[in-house]
Amino acid sequence: MRVLNVVWLFPCSSETFISLILADLTRRGWHMDILSQRDPRTWEGKAREDTEPETQIHAHVVEAGLLDRVSYFGTAQMLNQRLTEHDGAYDLVFLHWADFLEQILSRQPLSVPVVVTCHEPDFTQSLPIFMERERVLERVSGIIVEGRYQYEKLLELGYPAERLLYWKVGLDFQGIDAAFTAHHLTTDTLRLVSAGRFVEKKGFLQTIEAIADLRDRGLSLEYNLIGDGELRSEIERLIGHYGLDQIVRLPGKIMHPALFEHLARGHINLIPSGMAADGDVEGLMSTVLEAMACGSAIVGTRHGGTPEVIKHAVTGWLLDDNNPHTIAAAIEYLANNPDLRQQLGAAGRAFVLEHFKLEATIDILEAFLNEVKNRSQRFLR
């Protein structure tokens, strides 16, 4: 199968959910060429407010020879030109972000099937486009979503189930297992960890307030809040306001495999997500799966994709909302019940090992892409 992949940044160290797909399908004999809008190694701008250039190149990118398969288009006009030039040279065009969907819809139809992936940040932004169902279905042969909310929303809009795949790329456990073995629960102080973009729906502002409440109640703890984004200044303000400078650390963005080491050191991983004011919701976040794989007990909310993998009191601890008092109560309960905390972490890791190995999830994706191609060929006949 020859596939033209359209991405935003490549090689992008934080977007392993894309590079792992490209590398694994390449190892399976697929020809994967890449059109990237930007090269993060030379780009001085910003893709989004919370994204900065990332120059680390993962080993799987190099081993699969992907750096020799990438070219850059820069502008929407140039993307359209490149798509026209390459039309017919591939079996499939794979858009890895729904941001590119409007460009596909506004140009002449391609002669090969188009597949688009909707990640949690861009589904809400692209929802007005998906409301134009007939227009989308005329140009797009397959839609991949990573959250049940997105999947059910598209079904509600009348999208046929055979065009949809509810799917999440699995994990490469090599780096995760090394971190788990070396660092899991190596500190006596209660260590809390969160990782993600500093945006409203992540719930990190509420978590800072919960940490202040627990400090005031005498609980000895530390909190590593990993990431960056538009709310960083507000998070820093709250840390200063509550006098949490010695408790809350902001190490910034940390990439794999170093991120796995931080997650494995945590007794509890906090995922206090909630719906943002603009309606933005989470899908099934990679950081949830990674934290579970590292053996951390998860405290999350019944929001987005989290309840799909966290079963309350079995593979983690679920909250009805991300109110600071609710978060604090859960942390305090698990702090006082270390055996339960370790039981949740072990069960969560076992669940991810069973259901989210990279090879098994790529098997599902490969079958879907092949079916999209075959269905399009039958239609053309």
Any overview of this molecule?
The chain has 381 residues and is of the alpha/beta class. It folds into 2 domains: 2-170 and 357-380, Rossmann fold; 173-355, 3-Layer(aba) Sandwich (Rossmann fold). The protein is 43% helix and 17% strand. The chain is built from 15 helices and 13 strands. The strands form 2 sheets. Strands 3-2-1-4-5-6-7 form a 7-stranded parallel sheet, with helices on both faces. Helix 12 packs across helix 14 (338-355). It is elongated, with a radius of gyration of 21 Å.
Which secondary structure elements does this structure contain, and how are they paired or packed?
Blueprint: E1 2-9, H1 16-27, E2 31-38, H2 59-63, E3 70-72, H3 76-86, E4 92-95, H4 101-105, E5 114-118, H5 120-130, H6 133-139, E6 142-145, H7 148-156, E7 164-166, H8 173-183, E8 190-195, H9 204-216, E9 221-226, H10 232-242, E10 248-252, H11 258-265, E11 268-271, H12 286-293, E12 297-301, E13 317-319, H13 324-335, H14 338-355, H15 358-380
CATH top level of the largest domain is: Alpha Beta
Q: What global shape is seen? A: elongated
List low-confidence stretches.
46-53
Q: Over the alpha carbons, how many angstroms does the gyration radius reach?
A: 21 Å
Side by side, the strands of the main sheet go 3-2-1-4-5-6-7
Ends apart, CA distance between termini = 19 Å
The CATH topology label of the largest domain is Rossmann fold
Q: Tally the helices.
A: 15
What share of the residues does DSSP label as strand, in percent?
A: 15-25%
How many structural domains can be distinguished in the coordinates?
2
